Amino acid sequence: MKARQHPHPHKRQKLSVLTGRLRQQARKITGPRQAILKILRAHPHPLTSREIFAALPRGLCDLATIYRAMHLLEEMDMVRRFDFGDGAARFELVGEGDDGHHHHLVCTKCSEIVEIDECFPAEIEQRIAVKNKFKAVSHKLEFFGICPECQ
Ligand SMILES: [Zn+2]
Ligand SMILES: [Zn+2]
Ligand SMILES: [Zn+2]
User: Fold this and answer.
1) Counting ligands in written order, which one lies closest to the CA of residue 106?
2) Contact 84, 142 (CB under 8 A)
């Protein structure tokens, strides 16, 4: 997946802060987990487990270890999972004090990803909740289109 650099200031965290958060949660900081966080920190867009695997030093761990680590990091709210409808879960680092909620605009031709800060007005969610007698309504949403370079 091609990833053009986009500024994402809240993602720039010190690795020591991240591993500190791991430690706080009383989990063992394995070499692979620390290496995964380092890779996610260096990438402004969501990565698949396979992309993370490809970016890790050879022989550090196998793909199954990465799948397990991503599941654990997601449970710890350190990464957020995104689904672009192609069957591959993608992960992004969640900043401290940030719920990680945002959306992406994905080019259907070259897979370029743009980070989108805009979101639905809260009234829409409230209206949907009230209308259907639901509580704690949230949403997941990604946008697709054709980027300027592919037009
Ligand atoms: Zn494109
Ligand atoms: Zn993102
Ligand atoms: Zn949203």
Assistant:
1) 1
2) yes
Ligand number with the minimum distance to the CA of 149: 1
Q: How far is ligand 3, taken at its centre, from the CA of residue 109, in Å?
A: 24
User: In this structure, are residues 108 and 146 in contact, taking their beta carbons and an 8 Å threshold?
Assistant: yes
- Indicate the pTM of the whole model: 0.74
User: Contacts by 58-62 with C-beta closer than 8 Å and gap 24+?
Assistant: 60/31, 60/32, 60/35, 61/31, 61/32
Q: How far, in Å, is the centroid of ligand 3 from the Cα of 23?
A: 30
The string of pLDDT tens digits covering residues 103-132 is 999 999 999 999 998 998 889 999 999 999
Name 25's Cβ contacts closer than 8 Å, sequence gap at least 6: 76
For ligand 1, the distance from its centroid to the CA atom of residue 108, given in whole angstroms, is 7
Burial class, 141, CB count within 10 angstroms (exposed 0-12 / middle 13-18 / buried 19+): exposed
CA of 119 to the centre of ligand 2 (A): 13
Q: How far apart are CA 105 and CA 143, in angstroms?
A: 4
Q: Cα of 131 to ligand 3 centre, how many Å?
A: 19
pLDDT tens figures, 14-36: 777 777 776 665 555 567 888 99
